[in-house]
Amino acid sequence: MTRAALRLESVSCQFGSVVALQAVSLAIAPGEKVALVGPSGAGKSTLLSLLNGSMSPSQGSVQVLGKAINQLQGSRRRKLQRQVGTVYQQHQLIENLSVIHNVNAGHLGRWPLWKALWSLVWPQQVNAARQALAQLGIADKLYARTDRLSGGQQQRVALARVLVQDPKIVLADEPVASVDPARSHDMMALLSHLGKNRTLVVSLHDVVLAQTYCDRIIGLRQGRILFDLPSAQVSAEQLTALYDLEASDLEASNLEGNDLEADLKPSDLENSAV
Amino acid sequence: MKNFSTDVSKVSGEPLGNELPGNELSGNKPSGERSPQPFTSKANFKRLFVLFLWFLFTLWALRVSGTPELNWGGCASIYQFLSASFRPELSPAFLWVMAKAALATFAFAVCGTTLSLVIGLIFGVACSRLWWRIFLPGTVGQGIWMVLRGGLAVPRAIHELIWGLLLLNVLGLDPIVGVCAIAIPFGAITAKVFSEIIDETPAEPLNALVNSGVYPVTAFFYAQLPQALPNLISYGFYRFECSLRAAAVLGIIGAGGLGEQIFLSWQSLQYAEVWTGFYALILLNGLVDTWSAKLRRQMGFVSRMDIARRTNAQKRRAATERNRFFIWGSWLAIALSIPLCFAYLDLGWARIGRSPPFLIDLASQVTPDRVLSALSFSLVPLALQTVAMSVLAINLAGIGGVLFSFPAAQNFFLPGGLLQSVGTASRWGGGHLVLLLSRLILLAARAIPAPILALIIVFGMYPGVWPGALALAIHNFGILGRLMAEVNENLPDRPLRALRSLGASGSGIVFYGILPANFARFLAYILYRWEVCLRETVIVGLVGVGGLGRLMTEQLSSFDYSGLAATLLVFIGLTIIVDTISAQMRSAVR
């Protein structure tokens, strides 16, 4: 078995009585480009939050670069998290700082406190930031205030932050959710450029984009993996089943021979009601 | 301890506190707010219930305070006093004295604000829930947070005037008394508000950084503080305006400045001089308020107390008329004035060394058995009187404030305002006069110290609850009117223009467009000011108009510290009760 960049082993995740993920197992090899597709509420965002350690699973283990991220604490956990860069749907930039500071936030994992604070007064490593922005085509915005930028530009700043962070794994949560078709191709091109020599996991609604830019597509529905195939092998029927509102759980799980765990045990339900 | 967590939007005063998108920290979302059936909806019922409760409360307060006993014999003195307003003392020598006094008041305000902001920033970070959540997650951190937040209630509950008298006993007559009397209670208030601002600032960028492996403390200072900074600065300006008023009041106990000069002139019955002092105070307050409002607008902060609106991009007025020269000039002036003011007052820091022996003495006097024996049932009627005074005052102030908030708002009677049709010729006219006059009245009402107002009222009324209530009402009317005028100015105008264009009359617009939109906010401000009003009852108590404040000043001047501790204990209990009621009511009308 090759060493996986990301590995989930029968991971379940519950919020109160809502089950977001159910016994999900998967492994992603280093350098792979993976798209997560599925209807809203399928558990895509939850899966990504598990991978960057912002959430811990209710059951099962999440391994990032061979280490169980939810069992690490303190600086060891932070060191691992530095290897995972995330592009959020809402960008999560510090809006009233200028772009350079937001890009430099990618350094923060390596910088001591005094350097971080000093950089707010006197920006550090300007060249690295300028290079990152130049790669994304907005070099001229280096000293602009972030909240004055358009949505697309802000997203590029968020990408530049990840570029500066220089992680081994890049996660992107619906990066093209609110962008027109032409822009979404640009964005995916930038992401796959960012993902060069890195592992990329991106959640998408648009299957065509997923097939164009990713090697592998994982279909999620109601917290379960419906299919997990190389991009070229995903068939139209599978996609219909994935997004079909009428399809019952039973049909869905019959469609692909994934070794899903048995259905929720009664004890799980009791726990979840707490 | 619940009240310390629920009154999160206290000084923010606004009912929007919980509508920040994705703000996980403010938990209590209003439920059933948008019901299709307004008359049966739970929210509406709650609102009516609160209003009914408040009505009963007011009836009770009226009963406690009895009918005001007018003293017709004082009419001559009142006439004498009022007629002096037309001929203030303007001799160069006296004007020079007043100018120096005004400078001293200004310097007190600058130094007091500076220290309270420093205290506020340190304790604000330390008392924010977010800090403990990322620094020490779990129940231990939560416990420390609650203890710190609760601890802030004590210095806050004691009015700056009581602090001033207390410090006067310890440190002797020195400017440091005035500065510390402002810095301690205002520091605690600022700390509370700062911690709320930090907690209400969206934490997602911080979480994003923490989840990419950044050390939480670094992420806090890099992501959370810069985001909160505009609101912190904006609140700082408001604190400065408050400090200026507090500095004037503190003059009355001899801390120096305009308040002291006015009080001296008053005691020697030189009403012409008193009016000079009033005009100087009005001028000073007017200048500072105008400057602070202009600077806040130029820097893009809409309203000083409006925390949650920041997220709404539309509300953030575009900085089209941004005047960099003005902004940088203002900051330069601030940077220069702080050291200059400290130097001017020449604070006797060494006097703080006198406090340990005093504290030892205090500890020997204020022992649990002594304090408990000083607690007696005779305090109960005084406490009830105090509450009644604050309720009456805030009722009057609220009604007056709402009425004046319309003419004092820029967007109502001016040409092109909401009550004028678009395209009315913009020339200097009646609208400007109304605006100017109403603003001037509000300014005068809040600039003149409440104890002096109480002294004037006592001319025509025998001491009791009413004179104090009236004095507080006038002062709070000045503050509420301004706050509410700002609420009116920040009202989105499109729905109102729509009403206008379908032919609604001016009053129709007020009752269908403006009041429904702003009423909850007005109530929130009134309730918030009620809490402040309760604390302020001590300052009218100082001139002997009744309530716990009067007892406190008597105990302070006779060095009866165990008795004072007992009274303070009752007073702090009272403030906590009133804060809780007010917080509950505010969340109900939200």
Layout of SSEs?
The complex is a heterodimer of chains A (274) and B (590).
Chain A: E1 6-15, E2 18-28, E3 33-37, H1 44-51, E4 59-64, E5 67-68, H2 74-81, E6 84-87, H3 99-104, H4 113-121, H5 126-135, H6 151-165, E7 169-173, H7 181-194, E8 199-204, H8 207-213, E9 216-221, E10 224-230, H9 236-243, H10 249-255, H11 266-273
Parallel strand pairs in A: 3-8, 3-9, 6-7, 7-8
Antiparallel strand pairs in A: 1-2, 1-4, 4-5, 9-10
Helix pairs in contact in A: 5-6, 6-7
Chain B: H1 2-6, H2 42-65, H3 75-83, H4 92-126, H5 129-135, H6 139-151, H7 153-157, H8 160-171, H9 175-200, H10 204-210, H11 216-250, H12 258-267, H13 271-298, H14 324-345, H15 355-365, H16 368-374, H17 379-405, H18 430-447, H19 450-460, H20 465-489, H21 494-501, H22 506-541, H23 548-557, H24 561-589
Keywords:
heterodimer, A: 274 residues, alpha/beta, six-stranded mixed β-sheet, 11 helices, B: 590 residues, mainly alpha, MetI-like fold, disordered N terminus
The gist of it:
With 274 residues, chain A is an alpha/beta fold. Chain A contains 11 helices and 10 strands.
What's the CATH architecture name of the largest domain in chain B? Orthogonal Bundle
Query: Biggest interface in this structure?
Result: A-B, 35 and 23 residues
Order of helix and strand elements from N to C terminus of chain B: HHHHHHHHHHHHHHHHHHHHHHHH
Nearest-integer average pLDDT of chain B: 81
Helix content of chain B: over 70%
Q: Look at the helices and sheets of chain A and give the structural class.
A: alpha/beta
